Every structure is written in structure tokens, then in C-alpha cells.
Amino acid sequence: MTAARASWDPRTLPASGSPERWPWLQGLRRARHLDLEPWLQAVEAGSLQPAPDLLAALAERLDGPAAARLLAWWLAQPAADPALLAVIGRHRHPRCRALLRQALAASAAGPAAVSAVGARAALLLPLLGHQRHLDDFPLLRDQALAPLPLQQRRAALEGLAVGLGAWPSLPLRQALGALVGDLDRGLAATAVDLLARLPGGARDLAALDRGRLAPELARRVERRLAARRS
Amino acid sequence: MNSTDTSVDTAPTSDRSAPPPAELSKVERAKAELCGLDLAPRLAELAAAGWESLDEATLTIRLKWLGIFFRPVTPGRFMVRLRLPNGVIAAEQLELLADAVDRCGEHGSADITTRQNLQLRGLLLEDMPPLLAAMERVGLTSRQSGHDNPRNITGNPLAGLDPEELIDTRPLVDAIQARLLADDGPRNLPRKFNVAVGGAPDSFLLHNDLAFLPAPHPQDPAAPLGFTVMVGGFFSAQRNELAVPLGLWLRHEQLPDFTLALLRHYDAHGNRAQRNRSRLMYLVDGLGLAAYRDAVVAAYRELAGPSAPAPLPHDGRHLVVRAPRDGLGIQAQKQAGLHWVGLHVPMGRLDAAAMLELARLARVYGSGELRLTEAQNVLIVNVPSDRLAALEAEPLLERFRLEPGALQAEAVSCTGSRYCSFALIPTKRTAQAVIDELERRLELPEAVRSHWTGCPNACGQPYMGQIGLMGAKARHDGQMVEAAKIFLGGRLDHDPQLAALHEKAVPLSELPDVLEGLLVERFGARRRAAP
């Protein structure tokens, strides 16, 4: 199929639900030569909806600039499918990072009580961390520590997690140390797990007054320290 | 990602006969430039530099030679797939893996796979060097567990325990793995390759590229059992085949070299131009079975040497005559006074706490060993009679039941859309919800094996199910919705056959009703009285 088809025209993509769609997309995925530009243009023009199966087929072709164009499209859609974001947002590129920063700035400026805004920020923060750019550390740290909706704070901490090695060590340890004392058990547990991965983190964990931690969290600290010793 | 930012030196690793570089696919080019195994000494350095330092081929292809999987659906969170020959794992090993999952918090989980294996999710790239080093210390490896490699080798999950055992598969599986992972083993196959060894009358293994099934000596009925060789089984989006007899019989000690010889032949002659026509059966088709057999025998003779006994001609008859037992519940081992205890793990998914608890139970009540089954369940083995009652009272057994419902017991599922970008439905969650609902509605006279898969790639083996379900999309009330195609009739007994399409794309919202009707009509289910 890949050899026989001269070009892969977005207009000939079988509709979702068609039995021909899966083999067509597999042929597209395996095509030796594929011009991505018509696909990007079709998405940008609104004539093609990038469903998850289509993006999965195109994923290996996307480079940073292409991903940035799709990310810009996604961010412009008020009700875009969140499932698309991971595939689009996994690329590291200055334009992707800039788009994420802009979108997060816009959501921060909006009414904090609007849950849709917070939900969108929660999707974007891990991807910003995944960009692993040093300059984004303060934003992620501040959102993880701030009195924001929990979903957003957890997303910011996930951003710190997936960029772990890119952040400045001492401020990161300080932030995680503060989060160990957070009232939210999920945030505190993740902070313990991340601290345990850092050079010097075990020392921070050992220095904690475990008697003041929730029993479950104290046991978690013990487990992380025990693993370091073994 | 910028493809010019590679920090990994690439130089040709092989001059084997292959298409010229210009004709190679992207995957073949990546493999030819650098073998992923050569990344092992630099893993710590690469992990410290972060995923962004890796070129695309290293990130998405080569790391799989170390068992490390970049997951597009969870950017920054990686997966490790182990190798657990014959599905055997020790409590100490499971505890180590539990700790790795535990430190991933809500992102961490482990799946028991349909190859008696484990894959851990939610890991950071930084976790890999210490994890792989710790795994090595306790005798675990993830080497060559993904992509174009010989995958985890399966065997009888009850090996060494089974009153019905014909041959203990454990030493054979171990020996084959050792031979394949040796320095002269295959490192760049045209495609993935599944090997399995049968050891009991219910060792259904015809879905493997290469399966060894117990069979009497073709000329001497008094001789020890050996194996007939079956080749070419696989499932894919394009084609589904059960393995066919190659027409050879082997002694136990011939299996490792024979497997290596067959893989070397596949390495040299398999299709590298079209990945969707590269599984072993295509090579068998291309050469013809007789010519293929002659070529493999020649490769074996060359490897084993002239003094090694030749494979014997064989008619392909074997001693596998029944569908696999589920192995669940308390069952007597062949060793007097000992039992295995089969626990049902819903959809094969484990969290860290459950893994730790399983390890503890295996230590406290058994010999510290566990087995994983192809049906994605777990067995605690060597439990003495006088420990059974206490084990039955353990809280974990309320979650991982000894006697699950007739649909739960043999439900197998692929990963689904939570972790796989190809899946069209959230397979595990859907399967669990539908089965829970059906078991509320119905009583079944016996277990029904259902296989759930998220897409036509068929990782959940839908063609092996009495009922097979495959994720799809369908139009319903004017909207495109998640759906499942229904396959019926898979048989794994003496007359095996693949399930065939019964109904196209049933919306998930209607699936319980449609399956209820099928279970009543075809599987003898009775509707429960309304409460």
C-alpha cells in the first residue's frame, strides 16, 4: 500500500468509523515519503479534525515546528480533545514552549474560579515541565506551592517531576521540602518521591521529623530511605 | 524534536545482507546505525542529560533494546518491560519492582502481560540506571524485551508443580533465553519474535512465531518425550495465523541451538522492506514449508556442528489437547501436601501496594516464588496444606479472588487508550465495567474466555477468545462514539481455531445488552432474578 500510493491526501482519509480507516492510517504511518504540510494546512484551515488515531499515525513524522503548529491549533480550540495534547506536546521546541507559556499566562490572568481555565492549565503544566527549560522552574514551583485548585498544583508538580534533572538543585529541594508538609497527601507523597531521587535529597528526607508527618507519609519516607540504603 | 541534536554516535553495526541504505525503512536505518544494546554503558549519562538529549530514533526505538519505552501518551513518564522466563518471579524481585512503582505515586502501575511478563509504568528516565542496576543485582533483566527482538519466552506457568505435567519447561525456557541473549545472539531481527515451550496437555501456544509442543519420539515410543516444532503463528492488523507444523522433532537439549539457528535464518532472510509483511509466516510462505524446513535444518547443523544429532522428521502430532486451565483457586501440586494458590488480578493491573503484598504472601505462606500466567493472573506456589486457611483469610484475597466470576476469571485485555496511542477505547476500564455488569445480570455454567483489544493490532489477542472484542468507532445517534467489534468462536483445544467477526462496531453503551444476549443464546447463561 505504501509503495503503490503516490501521495497521501488528507481529503482521501476515510471517515472515523469506516472499516477502511485503520488500514489507511497504517499505510500512512508506514509511508516511506510523506509531505506533512498538506496535513498541517488542513488542520489549520479547519477542514481536517486531528482525531487521536490520525495523530498516532502521524506522530513519528512530527518535528518541533510541526508540533508547534498543531499546538497552536489546539490552544485556539475552546473544546479541543485533551487526548490529543500528549502526542502534540511531547516535542521540545522553543515555539512549543512559548505557546505553553502564553496559554498559561492567559489562564492565570483569567478568573481563577473558572474551573475550565484551571483544567486547561492542568493539562499544560506537565507539558511545560516536559520542555525542561530552566526559566520555567519558577512558574512551576510557584504554581505547585500556591493556593490554587489542587488539580493545578498537582499538574505543576508533575511538571517539576518530568523535568526533574533540568531544575536548579537547591531551590528544587527547598520547594519539595515545603511540599512534604502540605496538607494534601498526594502532593506530599510525590514531593517525598521526588526528593528521594535528587542528590542530597536523602539527607533532606532523613532530616525530616517523621513524628510530625502523617503515618502514611512517614512510612513512605522510610521506604525511600530504606531503598537508598539497600 | 530536532533530529540533529543527537549525542549518540552512530556507526554501521552490521554488514548482513540487507537492502541498500537508501531503501531501508526508518526503523531499519535506525537499527543499522546503532544497536540499542550499545547504549547500556552510557545509560546513566544519557538519563542525566534528559530525554531532550536523545535523537528521535534513540528515544523511540533504540532504548527498547534495554527494555525502556518512551510512551507518547505520557510524555516524560517511561515504561520498563522485563523478561520473566516462564513467568517465574521471586518475592525479592517483586519487592524491588514494587518499590520502583511506589516511587511513581499515582503515575505508577504494573501490568501482567499476555507473555507472562511484567511492565512497569510511570517511571522517569532518571529512574532507569539505578533501576536496571538494582534489577541486575536480583537476577532480573529487561534486555531486548521490546521492538525487533525475541520477546519474553513463555512456558507452562505450573511447571514443576503440575500433576498433569509432561515436561518441566523452566530449564528449557531458561536455556533458550540464555542462548538468545548471549553475545552472539540476535540483535537486529526484521520484526518481533515470540517463542514458547509447552509442557502440559493445555499448553496452547500456536499464537507464537515458534512453539515447541511436547510430542513422543517419532520412532521410539519408549524414548523420553521431546518436542514437535510449530512455526509462524501471529496476530496483526493484516493477518492472523496459528502456527503450523514444521515437520521436525527435537530433543530437549536441542531447543536452544535450534531456536538460535532459526532466528539467525530469519535475521538473514526475513523481510526488512515491508514491516507489515515481516513476521516469520511470511518468510515460510515465501520459501515454501519444505524449503524453509531444509534451510533451518541446515542452519542448525552449521551451528550445532556435525556431531550433533539431527532433528528428526515428524508429522506434527503433539500432546496438547485442551484449552488452558485458568489455574485459579487452591490446587494440589504434584508434590504431596503442597498447593499453588491462583489469584485473579483484574485485567492484570497491579499497584505497588498489591505487589508488595503478593511478595509478602509468597514469603509467608509459600516458598517465596510466584508465577505469572498468560491470562494475566498470579500464582503463589508451594503452599503447605496447613497454611492454606490463613492465606485464604488474608485481606488481599478479597481484591484478588480465588474464585472470580465466570467472566472475570479468563478476561484478558491489552493496555488500552490510557497508555497506548493506537487504542480506540480505554480497554481495561471498559472490559472491567462490562464484565462487572454482565456478572450482575447473569449466571454462567462455566467460565467464558474473553479477550479485549483496543485496536486491530490485536495485542489483546481477540482471535483467541471464545468472545473477542476489538476497539472501534461507530456512529450512534448522529455522533461518533467508542465501540467494539465482536468476534466469536476462538478455540484453544485439540481443534484450535481463531475467532471470527460476528458483529461490527457495537457502541460501548450497548455492549452489555448485546453481550448479555450472546451469553444467553450461545453460552448457556441464565438471567439472575431481579433483586
Mean pLDDT of chain A: 91
**Oligomeric assembly:** heterodimer
Compressed to H and E, one letter per element, the order of chain A equals HHHHHHHHHHHHH
Alpha carbon gap, first and last residue of chain B: 58 Å
| Global structural class of chain B | alpha+beta
Radius of gyration of chain A: 21 Å
Q: What integer value in Å does the Rg of chain B equal?
A: 23 Å
Distance between the termini of chain A: 54 Å
Level of helix content of chain A?
55-70%
Strand content of chain B: 15-25%
Mean of pLDDT of chain B = 94
How many distinct folded domains of chain A? 3
> Largest sheet of chain A at a glance?
none
Count of β-strands of chain A: 0
Task: Please work out how many helical segments of chain A DSSP would assign.
Answer: 13
- Major sheet details of chain B: 5 strands, antiparallel
Please identify the structural class of chain A as seen in this structure: mainly alpha
Report the helical percentage of chain B.
25-40%
Model regions low in confidence, pLDDT < 50 over at least 5 residues of chain A = none
Question: Can you give a write-up of this model?
Answer:
The complex is a heterodimer of chains A (230) and B (531). Chain A is 63% helix and 0% strand. Chain A has 230 residues and is mainly α. In chain A, helix 6 (94-109) packs antiparallel against helix 7 (115-131) and helix 11 (185-197) packs parallel to helix 13 (215-229). The longest helix of chain A is centred in the middle third of the chain and has 17 residues, at 115-131. Chain A is elongated and about 65 Å long. The mean pLDDT of chain A is 91. With 531 residues, chain B is an alpha+beta fold. Chain B has helices at residues 26-33, 43-49, 56-60, 91-102, 128-137, 170-181, 255-269, 280-287, 289-304, 352-365, 388-392, 396-399, 427-441, 511-523; strands spanning 68-69, 78-81, 88-90, 109-112, 118-123, 195-197, 210-215, 226-231, 234-235, 240-241, 244-250, 312-313, 329-332, 338-343, 349-350, 369-372, 378-384, 411-413, 442-443, 450-453, 467-476, 479-488, 500-507, 526-527. Chain B has 14 helices and 24 strands. Chain B is globular and about 70 Å long. The chains are: A mainly alpha (230), B alpha+beta (531). At the A-B interface, helix 1, helix 3, helix 5, helix 7 and helix 9 of A face helix 2 and strand 21 of B.
